[in-house]
Design brief:
The protein is of the alpha/beta class. The protein has 30 helices and 29 strands. It has four domains: 185 residues, Rossmann fold; 177 residues, no CATH class; 128 residues, no CATH class; 139 residues, no CATH class. Strand 3 and strand 4 form a beta hairpin. The structure holds zinc ion.
Amino acid sequence: MSSAVPFIPGDSPPQPGPFSRYLPPLPQGIAKAWLAEHLSPEARHEGWVLDPFGASPSLVLEAAQAGCRVLVTANNPVARFLIEMAANPPAKADFLAALAELSTSSRGEERMEQHIRSLYNTECAVCGATVMAEAFFWERQAPAPYARQYQCTSCNAKGEFPATNQDAARAQQFTTVGLHRARALERVAPPNDPDRIHAEEALSVYLPRSVYALFTLINKMDGLRLPPARRRALEALLLRACDLATTMWQVPTARERPRQLTIPPRFRENNLWLSLESGIDAWASLSSSLPLTIYPEAPPDSGGICLFEGRLRDLCDQIRTDKEISLPIKAVLTALPRPNQAFWTLSALWAGWLWGREAAAPFKGVLRRRRYDWNWHTAGLFSAFSSLAGLLPPDVPILGLIGEAETGFLTAALVGADMAGLNLTGLALRSGTELAQLHWQTARQDRQDRQETISRDEADRLLRQAAANAIEQFLKIFGAPAGYLLMYTAGLEGIVQSGVLRRRALQPPKTAPELPSEESLIQEEVEASPPDQFSYVQNAIRDVISFRGGYLRYGATDSPETGFWWLRSPEGSAPPLPDQVEKFLVTRLVRQGKCRFFELSRALLREFAGLRTPPVELIQVCLESYAAQSPTDPDEWELRPQEIPAARRQDLEMVTRQLVQLAELLEYTTEGKFPLKWLDAHGNTQYWFYPIASAVIGDLILGKSLPSPSPGERSIIVLPGSRANLVAYKLRHDSRLRQLCATREAGSPDAEQRHGWRFVKYRQVRSLLESPLLRREKFDDLLNLDPLTYAAPQMRLF
Ligand SMILES: [Zn+2]
């Protein structure tokens, strides 16, 4: 039933490089690890890996580097170009030669480089010399730039300066109706083309000067007779310049991931000659050399990439009509595409500009669509997955990666795949990274249960029941309040596993309001489409999570998706996940004495799989609490000598003795060991001390409410100082525990007022014994002198 699988972390961060702001942010090393597990060397030799979307060049590259023949279907010409560049970029010498040729070509009386540079001339604010601006800064819809950035070659003044009237006049020389603009539109949609108006809208993210510069350069490239490698190098430089020429570069610079064609309030106009020059190093960061063929030519058995220019559906049609073709596909590995109006629309423009109208034609339809919603995406993914299910033999493993997981995306993917007949075999999601990994397998046989019909009401009831059961089971093993994405995904997984989406749920057709109601009644019922099912599933899970009386909710705001949810009746649930992780990690460290971060992290990911995948930060804080990094090998960690169990037992005995001494100094009597109670002269307990060696506090705090209704915070956990950061981490991430504790982060407004459990470090007990201020009435204040504060570790990502 449960499809929890270990999360595959990868081994290095996502590949930077041109266009990465539009590409899925996937760590590297995932493909390699997954293929090692799912595709034997023989299968790699005999068969192919299919990427039906081609959305991530680095993923394709990695599979090919692992020795696979990777067939990629990609309809977007720019996506195909990026894959070609990733596989086999031109040599740096080709970039340099191509740019040199462009630079020295003539433009009227001038050389091209001189001409383009002069478009960005400005006068130095200090010495008055004419210099070339690196960029101008604009406010959206303003007629002229407000600032410029340059480094003066005469007086060395550099930085940002207010723009002048001359800058305004220069920018306004370029009109929005020029010849170059006409050319830019012509190459995508000629005047009689119904998409013309959409191409014009798309072009509005370009300033006239940028269109002029780009088309002066593109026209010149068309006239140059370059050898193929240099031509490709120049196309790559110009493609990157096309991106840098948009007005979608926010000021101040932010790490944006644009999804809509929207112009930020303040943006940067890049100098396009400098953009060409900087492109050489940007593209040179890619350095592989892999065989790449165009379908149907096959790459060698040793591995490589085969590009199919078109959609998966087109490939399936070709295979169906041509019986000669045999494609033994052994695995499917893909980054699921995320609707990106910005990248798709710009790709249609750029493809037309660089490669002509015919090249852009099959992809041009994206210009028409301004908004993409997840319902629409569900239909698209359903169609693609249906093609896959029809193309592939049974039991082919499929890994779908989502780089920026959110509920709509996950729902579209899981609903689309399930309705298409793919079996979900695993799911893992790591909080803090938003990376989701979805595992499917093609079905053994056609599922019969789709024939079974149920009513819409019954289907909705089953959806809610499946989501509610799955969420409850998840929270019980998670042991702590969970955020919305985890709650939702648990419910979604439960719905898919229940099989309810595979049953034919009929619903009345959507009636036009003008129809009399009797007529709408006699219309035939229809089966829910994938976009309909998307909405039913989404509503069911939302209802379950937001049902009043269903869950406890912490940290809620007006938004229905903020805060953390926890069970009203938590009986039988596991200890909080961070406590479980700590115990596992310590057991292993104590047994082995030392460990490699990489191995430890993998062992933890195997033990805590699926939606329980521990965040990297937790693993690191936990490790830092008990172990020290080797000075010579940063990947090796060794249990600190004071953390050896025998040493910690001695510490516990010592601190217990010190607590007894302290009680005597304050004229309390003591009783018991855990808790160690302090009693006053009347025999009433005033303090309860719980000396521990770990940071495993969940069971202690949750299992025992405060033992007395006294006004102070009289329940005190005594722990080693090295555990303080780990406890602080746990309290930060568990609002339920935090509510039961008096400890607040220093400076927080309610730090003084909270009643509840307190934490005292061993060393504090020792210093209290020596404190000249020690008196009963001062004791509480003295205890509060050394509060827990959280210091985030310097993160390593894998
Ligand atoms: Zn100057």
